[in-house]
Design a protein that fits this description.
The protein is α+β, with helices and mostly antiparallel strands. Among the domains are: 189 residues, tricorn interacting facor f3 domain (Immunoglobulin-like, Sandwich), CATH 2.60.40; 129 residues, Orthogonal Bundle (Neutral Protease, domain 2), CATH 1.10.390.10; 86 residues, Aminopeptidase N, middle-beta domain (Immunoglobulin-like), CATH 2.60.40; 150 residues, Peptidase M1, alanyl aminopeptidase, C-terminal domain (Zincin-like fold, Alpha Horseshoe). The protein contains 26 helices and 33 strands. Strands 6-5-9-3-2-12-15-14 form an eight-stranded mixed beta sheet, with no helix packed on it. Strands 17-18-19-21-20 form a five-stranded mixed beta sheet, covered by helices on one side. It has a four-stranded antiparallel beta sheet with strand order 10-11-16-13, with no helix packed on it. The longest helix is centred in the middle third of the chain and has 34 residues. It binds (3S)-3,7-diaminoheptanoic acid (B3K) and zinc ion.
């Protein structure tokens, strides 16, 4: 390995900052190749023993001059290294001025100040501010910012930064400036600057205490009409945060800017959120229903950060989940309150299982609060975000809504304006409720997904039902020994009619009980249990665990039909289907004919016929577990077998219930203008699910049927549904539909991302060849993260059948792309590598090929910290 191993940063080494800042004044003279940044810091010694003041920097930045209290330092009066500037012999209080030159046009890492489509924008979280100026770039240094932005009027009529615009004016020939002052102290990662020629959409929101807030969304000219949904989502988020959390917005202005080149989804910079354009722009013609939901969820998420993240921030980056887990929980609750709660919960659990569970059982497994990292950008993970949100949700289940809100109130009373830790959050929850969180907090420090095994016993004579639960978490890297966790499980017992029985536990009679498991093995006794019950446990997925239940198929079918907890109804269907698919996998591997269980087909038939359930929930019940989910349950993944089993089952369901699906397809056709209400979206989801089953049932007529669906679609959801299925087909209809789509939408970046991804996810055998050809297509651009994720990301992460081709061609392709991308954008490159880290789960031949792809990356020359960390941890010993 040629890379010199970069240092490991550890939580246990944390020390408080030696110097604090009272004020920061920044001046930017914007120029594409040479922007001059002047920073003036009012510095105060915090630690009397501290000798040196350490400022972070970056090798892409040039230091021009350093001044202390008005005197310029000679170069022998400071230590300048590639990534730092250190000052010695300092007074207790002083003014430090630093001038740097940076090159936004050459910044392909998209961290710090960069150019995107002719505008200037910034991304500073986590450590991008140090690419703008030398600074104590750590979240526990909070201060007030005053920012002067200078630029030519014609190319940059719009000049934005955080806080309030307090001054504007003319400068030399053709130049102007704007001064922005942010009254709220903030860490450097929340700094933002945007300048360019942008169109603006404006609206207003009046807070409950009467503050009139101006809301503005800035987009490229021509996109003004595509902001309505984002603006509406913002206003609903502001109102919801007042109603549910009692939290109001705190400034007179809230700006959002949409940019085309962005590493992540969006960024919560104080009063100047910067978004990946993909998560702002949405209209009936170009956005799918899932796009509408994502825009709503992400706009809400960034807005909610204003309190959970900005007003109270993280002490250090190990505490990232303090703001992310909590804010994800808040955005999930917002979306649940806006649309179907059950459907939202199921979607969230599917995401957790698809992304977090594999992460937690693989080489990159880490606790919600990691203990160490090489590159913090690698820790914006499903564990920190989604499992972090589950940890907050469990606190909510344990304390109830009222108790949880009491905890939130105390958290803000104690910590507003501070940079704090996950322990501080848990302490506020504990103290406000007089609840002992000491055991529960292990969820923050222990990695891995607990497995809970359930054994039941019913004593008919005593009318007593006893559950014996045991928990086990398998070892993860760096954590050999695991301890029991505090696991809340909402539970009910169903009678033979499928109704929740009133049963007693510890003298309290109720139809639902929250079991709290704390030991490795524990008994839970229920009294007054009139008949042998059917267990419904972990309702609404109260705990993020894997359950091992003593159910047979008949019990699963019973719960699928009767459980009054919608989540567990869906879960029973999923478990029933997974068990069946695994059995079929066994048959496939033994070279036998695959047999389909008629009882399962009949159970699905009852779902098809059910008139009571709403359309979106029905569509979910009809969706078989993904190939990835089933893989998770196999000791050695056999993608071909899983694919064969799933296809066979889909065909059997489609054939058996053709009439029912035809009826659904016709009955759910909508007429009149497009509507994006949850009801209308539900109808579309159900109709497209019926379309898929009809196609599976009759492969001969499928291409024509799909092409007809495509031709008659009057919205993006239906067009994409048709293309997704046509993508797998080898027929003239395939090429025609993809060509028509390209011709119609080639100038729309968001739609072209879909066009690329749909082709990359095709199950056709020639997919990798197509993907390679698309790398040279004019709509592809390797410097644009959305395009890379749409083409390379979709192939490697969302097309297991072709990515895991037996000849290793998928692995070699990914290695080649990672090496190439690492030179351009390390964050994007590192994020593509996840699938290679799963090598231990595959057969020996694939293991060898996956590891050799990782080795090729490690041996390719100098690597970024980002790629080095993921590749070396994934490769293993
Ligand atoms: N906080 C940002 C993510 C920043 C990513 C830095 N690599 C978006 C969010 O979670 O809201
Ligand atoms: Zn966030």
């Amino acid at each position: 390995m040629k890379t010199i191993e970069p240092p490991v940063i550890r939580l246990q080494d944390y020390t408080a900052p030696a110097f604090l800042l009272d004020q920061v004044d920044l001046t930017f003279e914007l120029d594409p190749d040479r922007t001059i940044v002047t920073s003036k810091l009012a510095v105060r010694r915090q630690d009397g023993n501290a000798e040196a003041f350490h400022l972070d920097g970056d090798k892409d930045m040039t230091l021009l001059s350093v001044w202390i209290d008005g005197r310029e330092l000679n170069s022998d009066e400071y230590e300048l290294e590639e990534e730092s500037l250190t000052l010695h012999n300092l007074p207790d209080q002083f003014t430090l001025e630093i001038q740097t030159a940076i090159n936004p046009a050459a910044n392909t890492k998209l961290e710090g100040l960069y150019r995107s489509g002719g505008m200037y924008c910034t991304q500073c979280e986590a450590e991008g501010f140090r690419r703008i100026t030398f600074f104590p770039d750590r979240p526990d240094v909070m201060t007030r910012y005053r920012v002067k932005v200078c630029a030519p009027v014609d190319s940059c009529p719009i000049l934005l930064s955080n806080g309030n615009n307090v001054e504007t004016g003319e400068l030399r020939e053709g130049w102007h400036y704007a001064v922005w002052d942010d009254p709220f102290p903030k860490p450097s990662y929340l700094f933002a600057l945007v300048a360019g020629d942008l169109a603006m959409v404006e609206d207003h929101f009046t807070t409950r205490s009467g503050r009139d807030v101006t809301l503005r969304i800035f987009v490229e000219h021509g996109n003004e009409t595509r902001c309505d949904h984002a603006m509406d989502s913002l206003k609903r988020s502001m109102k919801w945060d007042e109603d549910r959390f009692g939290l109001e917005y705190d400034l007179d202005i809230f700006n959002i800017v949409a940019v085309s080149d962005f590493n992540m989804g969006a960024m919560e910079n104080k009063s100047l959120n910067v978004f990946n354009a993909k998560y702002i722009l949405a209209d009936a013609e170009t956005a799918t229903d899932s796009d509408f939901e994502l825009v709503e969820g992400i706009v809400a998420h960034e807005y909610f950060h204003n309190w959970t993240g900005n007003r109270v921030t993280c002490r250090d980056w190990f505490q990232l989940s303090l703001k992310e887990g909590l804010t994800v929980f808040r955005d999930q609750e917002f979306s649940a309150d806006q649309r179907s709660r059950a459907v939202k919960r199921i979607d969230d659990v599917r995401l957790l299982r698809a992304r977090q569970f594999p992460e937690d059982s693989g080489p990159l497994s880490h606790p919600v609060r990691p203990d160490s990292y090489i590159e913090i950008n690698n820790f914006y993970t499903a564990t920190v975000y989604e499992k972090g949100a589950e940890v907050i949700r469990m606190m909510h289940s344990l304390l109830g809504e009222e108790g949880f809100q009491k905890g939130m109130k105390l958290y803000f009373e104690r910590h507003d304006g501070q940079a704090v830790t996950c322990d501080d959050f848990a302490a506020a929850m504990a103290d406000a409720n007089d609840f002992d969180m000491s055991h529960f907090k292990r969820w923050y420090s222990q990695s891995g997904t607990p497995h809970v095994t359930v054994v039941e016993d019913y004593d008919a004579a005593a009318k007593r039902y006893t559950l014996t639960l045991s928990q086990e978490t398998r070892p993860t890297p760096g954590q050999e020994r695991k301890y029991p966790l505090h696991i809340p499980l909402r539970t009910a017992l169903l009678d033979s009619n499928g109704k929740d029985m009133a049963v007693s536990r510890r003298g309290r009679s109720a139809t639902e009980h929250l079991l709290q498991m704390e030991a490795d093995k524990q008994e839970f006794v229920f009294e007054d249990v009139a008949e042998k019950p059917v267990l419904s446990i972990n309702r609404d997925f109260t705990a993020p665990v894997v359950l091992h239940l003593p159910y047979d198929d008949a019990t699963r079918a019973f719960l699928m039909a009767h459980d009054n907890d919608a989540f567990n109804r869906w879960e029973a269907a999923q478990q029933y289907a997974s068990a069946l698919m695994l059995k079929m996998v066994g048959e496939y591997q033994a070279g036998k004919e695959l047999t389909v269980d008629p009882d399962f087909i009949a159970a699905m038939g009852r779902v098809v016929q059910d008139q009571e359930i709403d359309a979106s929930f029905k569509a979910l019940l009809l969706t078989l577990p993904s190939e990835e989910y089933v893989s998770e349950q196999m000791s050695v993944v056999d993608i071909d077998a899983i694919h064969a089993a799933r296809e066979k089952l889909r065909r059997a369901i489609g054939e058996a219930h053709q009439d029912g699906f035809k009826h659904i397809y016709d009955a759910t056709k909508q007429s009149g203008p497009f509507s994006n209400t949850p009801e209308a979206a539900g109808q579309r989801a159900l109709r497209n699910s019926a379309l898929a089953y009809l196609g599976a049932a009759d492969e001969k007529t499928a291409p024509a049927r799909l092409k007809d669906h495509f031709d008659t679609a009057d919205n993006m959801t239906d067009s994409v549904a048709a293309l997704r299925l046509l993508a797998d087909v080898t027929a003239p209809e395939h090429d025609r539909a993809f060509d028509i789509f390209l011709a119609k939408w080639k100038s729309n970046a968001q739609v072209m991302d879909k066009w690329l991804a749909l082709q990359a996810m095709s199950r056709r055998a020639d997919t990798l060849m197509q993907v390679r050809a698309l790398l040279d297509h004019p709509v592809f651009n390797i410097k644009n993260p959305n395009k890379v994720r749409a083409l390379v990301g979709a192939f490697c992460s969302a097309n297991p059948l072709r990515f895991h081709a037996a000849d290793g061609s998928g692995y070699d392709f990914l290695a080649e792309m990672v090496v190439k991308l690492d030179k351009i954008n390390p964050q994007v490159a590192a994020r593509l590598m996840g699938p290679l880290g799963q090598w231990r789960r595959f057969d020996e031949d694939r293991q060898r090929k996956m590891r050799s792809a990782l080795k090729a990356i490690l041996d390719s020359g100098e690597l970024s910290r980002d790629v080095f960390e993921i590749a070396s941890k994934s490769y293993g010993e």
